[in-house]
Amino acid sequence: MKVSLFITCLADVFYPEVGMDAVEVLERAGCEVDFPERQTCCGQPAYSTGYLEDAKEAMKQMMNVFADSEYVVTPSGSCAYMLKEYPEFFKGDGEWEEKAEDLANKTYEFSQFLVEVLEMEDVGAKLNARATYHTSCHMTRLLGVKEAPMTLLKNVEGLDLQPLPRSQDCCGFGGTFSVKMGDISSAMAEEKVEHIKETGAEVLIGGDCGCLMNIGGRIKREGLPIKVMHLAEVLNKRK
């Protein structure tokens, strides 16, 4: 099975190890993984700020880059959802509508691909730690991926996974929201960290780098001994 990795902007710039971990997990699962180097932003920041026509240029680049891919897998529920929205933006636009539908139909969030396509529940990961999982808004509410991450994490040997109080609450990132509404975003992140502390977790796990960066920043400012890890990092742990 051939898979193309869509790394996303945040992972590419701030969390490259997430992409490497995702590739290693996919390769152990029997996938042949490639990385189209001409990939760029999915267009979400420009679109969310109201610049749809500018965002469409990035979208067209993405559609062309992944045109020959069998599957497109990304370690981000938010960006996966954005790619799946492309057909709506190009409705009635001839060949671009067809390309948008093609990309949307073969795009999967990382855990979603492992569970729903490869039908895997246990990837052989091992991590001796008390942890809790943050459910990102876009992945759960828009993309609809809720069970796949938990299915995989429950099968990580040695992982003591604790439920996160008010897990459905947003962490305050929300892309450009955290910039436009900084004070509100900060208060939301503070509240999220308080709930994380209630679990006694040594590790916070999540599936979107934006959320992890936002929550991790608050954890660091408070000087808390809580490690922040992307789901792909956890699933690539072998001891």
Describe this structure in words.
The two termini are 27 Å apart. 45% of the residues are buried. The mean pLDDT is 95. The chain contains 14 helices and eight strands. The protein folds into two domains: 115 residues, no CATH class; 116 residues, Rossmann fold (3-Layer(aba) Sandwich), CATH 3.40.50. Helix 12 crosses helix 13. Strands 2-1-3-4 form a four-stranded parallel β-sheet, with helices on both faces. A four-stranded parallel β-sheet has the order 6-5-7-8. It is α/β, with parallel strands linked by helices and 239 residues long.
Primary descriptors:
239 residues; alpha/beta; Rossmann fold; 2 domains; four-stranded parallel beta sheet; 8 strands; 15% strand; globular
Order of helices and strands: EHHEHHEHHHEHEHHEHHEHEH
Work out the radius of gyration. 18 Å
**Fraction of residues in β-strands:** 15-25%
**Could you say what the CATH architecture of the largest domain is?**
3-Layer(aba) Sandwich
The span between the termini is 27 Å
Structural class by sheet pairing and helices: alpha/beta
Largest sheet: 4 strands, parallel
* Low-confidence residue ranges: none
CATH class of the largest domain, please? Answer: Alpha Beta
Mean pLDDT: 95
Domain tally: 2
User: What is the CATH topology of the largest domain?
Assistant: Rossmann fold
Percent helix, as a range, is 40-55%
**Outline type:** globular
**Helical stretch count?**
14
Total DSSP E strands: 8
Q: What is the strand arrangement across the widest sheet?
A: 2-1-3-4
